[in-house]
Every structure is written in C-alpha cells, then in structure tokens.
Design a protein that fits this description.
- It is a single chain.
- It contains eleven helices and 16 strands.
- By secondary structure, the chain is of the alpha+beta class.
- The strands form five sheets. A five-stranded mixed sheet has the order 10-9-8-13-14. Strands 1-7-6-2 form a four-stranded antiparallel sheet.
- Helix 1 packs across helix 3.
C-alpha cells in the first residue's frame, strides 16, 4: 500500500467559497492562538531565569505535542472564539497540527536531527498574506465522479472528472484518508490523501543501466545517447510575466512603500495581480507536466537509473545561471525518480557529490584537473577521445552504477557523498569493445583510443 495524492480543481458556488474561506480562517486563528501561548510561556520562563529563579520555581513548560495543543484549544475555544461552531472541528484541529509540526521542525533543526536548511521559529500567520488552506481527516470525506464531499461543506463540484479515483475506491483498491483544500492562483483545489495498492511492475529493460546527466542546454542526457531537450518554460513566458509585473507595480497595492504601512489595495491591483499569478501558475503547471512525463518514461524503461547528488542550493548562488537552473527543476526530477523507480520495480543509484563525472574520460578513465563550463566538447589528452561533454558524463554515471551493482563501487559515507574525488582506478572499468551501457550508442572505445 502506498500513500498518494489526487489533486482536483474545484468550482464552488459563492456561498461555498465563503464557507471555505471561513474554515481556512479558523485554522489560521487556531494556529496563531496556540503560537501566542507558546511564545508567552517561553518568554515567561526566560524572564524568570534572568531573575535567578531555577528548577521547580519556574513556570511549567507547555507541551508542544498535537494532543496537548488540541486539548488546550478545546478548553479555551468557547472564550477566545465564540463563533467556533460555525465551522467544522477539523478546521481548528488543522491549526494545532501545523503548529506542532513547525515547532518540532524548529527543535530538530536546532539539535541537528533535521538536515537541510535550518528551520526558523514559527511566525504568526497574517490574515492578508497567509495561504488559505485547511485539512480534513475525519468525517464525511469522499470523492464522487463530479463532486467532492467534505464535512460541513457538503458536495462541491469538481472542475474535472474523478472517475479514475472513484473506480479504484469502488473496487477496493484505494481508500481516502484525508482531504486538503487550498486556494492558489485565484481558484480552489482539493487534494485527497489516498492509501492505494500498486501492482508489481517490471521495467521494459530490467537489466539496463542508464546514466542521467542533467543540464541546461539539454535537460537530460542519457548514457545511450538519448538527449531530452530543455523546454525552458520560464524563459518563454518571461516577456509576458515581466509585462504583467510592471502593470502590478503601477497599481495601488496592499503596502505603501513611502509610509511603510498597509493599505487597502485597489480593484485594479487585484485584477492585475490575479493575471500575474495566472501567468506564473501556467509556467509551474507546464514544468510539472514535463517533469512528470520525463521521470515516468525513465522509470518505466530502465531497471537502474544513476543520477548525481547535485549541490543545487550552491549552484543557484551564481546569478547568471540561477534562473535557468531553477527553471530546469533538477531537484524535482531527482525526487520523482526516487519513488517512481520503486513503483516500477527499478532502482535509483545516486552518485556521490564528489564523483567527477564531467572531468573523467569515459574511454580511459583519466581525470582532467580543470574543465570550464564553456567546454561543451570533451577532449581527452590521454587517449584522444572526442565526445559530447554531457554524453561523456552520462556514460561515467552508468559505469558508476555498474560498479555499485557489482559491489566494487567507491566507498560512500552516511550522507551518501564521499569527501574526496573518486580515484581514477575506481572509475575506469575495463569493458569489451562494443559493449553498450543501456542501448544503441553507449559503446566504450578501446583503451588505446582507436575507433571501436
């Protein structure tokens, strides 16, 4: 059984739109109320410590667990929110749940249990800037062919049919566990969290090892010579996005730069902002669609896929390449491959960050000391191999995967990245001339540099 999400656009009536906003506002209010109590308790304890009070003399610390936060809210909701009965109890359970998760992430980040970018302490959710969102976990939650049924909200019309999900639920192959409504780019969406069973699958070529080198000019170069062009969705839509951004900047927005105060935005600003959000959303949708199609095709075709552990956060610091790297979506490709390979009966091997896939010759294994980004053709000074830079890197990645499968790969530390560049002896693997990695053109030239 696998937990999946099915996302659909909603077409609520004006009355349903108001109720949806009320539920999301209730979730935001419960979040802010709980955060205020936690901050007040922390401030009180710090003040008492500054006075020299220690041990049992301090004010008892509040528990940050979901159970405790929800219990405190239920005890105080009649006084702090006398209108709470207008919405479903799930709206007010969503706020403490998000607060408990935020506080836990902050605590784990400080103690080193949480990897990645350091999580900050939660902030109050502003009424005008916070994203409208609410999650339902109990009650009448189901998906019909043309409607979504949610507690206290009733049947809300879907913008598109949901026959695929309804058929799986009716056949007993899936079970709806939760539903999350969210307002994005001028319209409402609902995501059903579904526990579904997936049939065992086998890739078309289960024994093939495909190295995937991600780039900008070519989005993905495979070790069998297949080149996936980069659609560059943002670059194509950038003139329109810039024009709409200038229109938004010339309208009266919600913030006055001169007085540094909030103000009521004009209707023209709201319409212009909605058009800008729609244009930006179209870019995101196109990128998401192309990424899913690419990763699905790779996972269904090859039994083993080898990708790099790229330092994308460091790469985007280059102001000349940041926009192109972000538009390519390398991190999302890697994330989707990690679970789609498992779904399709394959495996994903991640080469360590210090593996010199671009600098290493795929023919003799010699490693260049320096390789400029402008050098799009790889020329080996040792064996004389001349090949495309990206294809050379993809061949080296495929060879890396074969080493891991054979059990003779380089040592990898707990993070999945060795701290030194892989030695040449571990990179070069002798193969018979004419043996392909994953298909038609992945032939490895002989060690003497002659044509295969």
């Amino acid at each position: 059984m696998t937990l999946q999400a099915y996302r659909f656009a909603l077409d609520p009536t004006p009355a349903q739109d108001r109720v949806l906003r009320s539920h999301c506002g209730g979730a935001r209010f419960a979040f802010n109320w709980g955060l205020g109590r936690v901050k007040a308790n922390i401030g009180q304890r710090e003040a008492e410590k500054s006075y020299g009070i220690t041990g049992d003399g301090l004010t008892p610390a509040l528990s940050w667990s979901l159970y405790s936060l929800r219990k405190d809210w239920n005890a105080a909701k009649a006084h702090v929110a006398p209108w709470w009965a207008e919405n479903s109890k799930e709206a007010y359970s969503c706020g403490p749940a998000n607060l408990a998760a935020s506080l836990q992430n902050w605590k784990d980040s400080r103690t080193g249990k949480r990897k990645g970018t350091r999580a900050g302490f939660p902030h109050q959710k502003d009424k005008h800037r916070a994203r409208l969102s609410c999650r339902f976990t109990t009650g009448a939650i189901r998906c019909e062919s043309r409607h979504a049924v949610l507690p206290r909200l009733g049947r809300i019309k879907l913008h598109e049919g949901a026959d695929a999900l309804v058929g799986k639920v009716a056949a007993g192959l899936a079970r709806v566990q939760s539903a999350t409504v969210r307002f994005e780019r001028g319209r409402w969406f609902v995501s059903f969290g579904v526990e579904a069973g997936r049939a065992a699958r086998t890739p078309v070529r289960p024994g093939a090892v495909a190295g995937v080198d991600l780039g900008i000019t070519v989005l993905a170069m495979l070790s069998d010579g297949t080149a996936v062009p980069n659609p560059k969705h943002l670059a194509r839509a950038l003139p329109k996005v810039r024009r709409l951004s200038r229109v938004v900047s010339r309208r009266q927005g919600p913030y006055d730069v001169r007085t540094r105060r909030r103000r009521k935005p004009s209707k023209r600003w709201e319409r212009a902002s909605a058009r800008l959000g729609k244009a930006q959303g179209q870019v995101a949708d196109l990128r998401r669609d192309s990424t899913h199609k690419l990763t699905t095709a790779l996972a269904r075709e090859y039994g083993t896929i080898v990708a790099e552990d790229l330092n994308i956060a460091g790469m985007v610091r280059n102001r000349r390449l940041a926009r192109a790297i972000s538009d390519a979506g390398w991190g999302e490709i890697r994330r989707q491959l990690s679970y789609k390979t498992t779904w399709n009966g394959g495996r994903l091997i991640v080469a360590d960050r210090w593996f010199a896939s671009s600098k290493t010759c795929s023919g003799c294994g010699a490693v260049k000391a320096k390789l400029l980004l402008s050098d799009r053709t790889y020329v080996c000074a040792t064996c004389g191999l001349v090949t495309d830079r990206d294809e050379n890197a993809a061949l080296n990645l495929a060879r890396y995967g074969e080493q891991v499968i054979a059990g003779s790969g380089p040592e990898i530390n707990g993070r999945g990245a060795g701290r030194k560049t892989t030695p040449v002896a571990q990179v070069a693997v002798k193969r018979q001339p004419g043996t392909a990695h994953a298909g038609k053109t992945g032939t490895v030239p002989p060690q003497d540099g002659t044509a295969a």
